[in-house]
Amino acid sequence: MAGNDLDNLKPMEVDTRRSSENARGIRGSLLTLLSRPSPFGNETGPLACGEFEPLPKLSSCYATTASDHESPLTKAKILVVGAGGLGCEILKNLAMSGVRDVDVIDLDSIDVTNLNRQFLFRQRDVGTSKAKTAAAFINERCPWMSVTAHHGMIQDKEPSFYSSFDCIISGLDNVEARRWLNATVVGLVEFDDDGDMDPASIIPIIDGGTEGFSGQARFILPRITSCFECTIDAFPPQIAFPLCTIAETPRKPEHCIAYASILQWPREFHDKKLDSDDPDDMKWVYEKALERAKQYNIDGVTYMLTMGVVKNIIPAVASTNAIIAAACVNEAIKYITFCSQNLNSYMMYMGSEGVHCHTFAYEQKDDCPVCTSTVQKMTISKTTTLNELLQEFRAGPLRLKSPSLVSSGGKTLYMQKPPALEKATRSNLDKPVSSLVESGEELTVTDPLLESIAVGVSITFE
Ligand SMILES: [Zn+2]
């Protein structure tokens, strides 16, 4: 833009005359969509959850007078989880769509390496709260929008905090936080005495995620579509590769690097922890990985890859974030206004080999521990100890973090917290499970990862 008067503006200043014209233009196209009847309204889609009613008059979507605040978008209350690469894009898109009431939550502070893509932040903001700085930027730049910032962990908020929103858009970068958020929001769904769901208690999570040139956006209607936990198998486990592969049958350069850092390092250095910021440590891992790769005729071990595997670095690509955030905000707008059909239920974007994108209905998993009430069935040996069973909950398909166990009779078998209860139940750990519970007995497993969801497990002995 070459306008002379724009040159005189300071970075945070806005040419209100121009931007209001521009904003009106951009948002005006959304207004067109919202003010006319549509054959593609939500009620005709596979996930019909509301009926589209065109706005009564053209100006009502973003009118500036107080009497005209009747659009679903201007009334909606949206939570954005994460104010990083996706979060900045999501907040900007919501602002440009005429959404007014938004909360944003993030634990992180701004790092200088964020500045290339997290465009709501400046050099002077380094070290400050992402949530607070992003909110302040949007509130100043887009005065029609009111963003409330929460600097802290999502786990520190009560479930009632989450139930106060119409829709939650999540731009988180880690699986653990997404599992927690999913379980918490699924846990908000209320049932009446007949077992029918209360539709008002269903809050959708629109979950965006990116990894380099790939990304996904999904629409989760708790207990109706598949939830995040239904698809947990699609994510690599916490140790990226099975230990047996790393130890015995390496096939990829990553396996060799993991071998050097996970198995060889502790053997060689016992008490010294590998410091991924120390070039000497990393050089050692790189050289050992290279040796092992030669042994197995595997190409591709480089110092950069070693850094990537050990530090678990996921490259961030600004344009992937922009595409995924746009898809997420589109879903939010469609859900809030019902003007079009929602994604059912998973969109995958692949940009590393050309550009490829497809959507599919990710089915609910029959025995999902979070969004179904199915009891998980497990068969173990008579000699399996309680400690080994807990280990199976961690490493097995449930992928729990620190499980606690109560028997169907209400007897506490093992509790991770509080410390007094942990101490009182610790002696059970070495006992065979068969001495503590009957075969076929249903146990209740709880874990901080899944918040309020209790998983039923029925144990039978071989
Ligand atoms: Zn599920």
TrEMBL record:
Enzyme Commission number, as recorded: 6.2.1.64
Keywords associated with the record: ATP-binding, Ligase, Nucleotide-binding, Ubl conjugation pathway
Stored SUPFAM superfamilies: Activating enzymes of the ubiquitin-like proteins
Comp. bias (Basic and acidic residues): 7-21
CC annotations in GO: cytoplasm; nucleus
Positions annotated as active site in the UniProt record: C244
Known catalytic reactions: ATP + [NEDD8 protein] + [E1 NEDD8-activating enzyme]-L-cysteine = AMP + diphosphate + [E1 NEDD8-activating enzyme]-S-[NEDD8 protein]-yl-L-cysteine
PANTHER family cross-referenced by the UniProt entry: NEDD8-ACTIVATING ENZYME E1 CATALYTIC SUBUNIT (PTHR10953:SF6), UBIQUITIN-ACTIVATING ENZYME E1 (PTHR10953)
Protein name per UniProt: NEDD8-activating enzyme E1 catalytic subunit
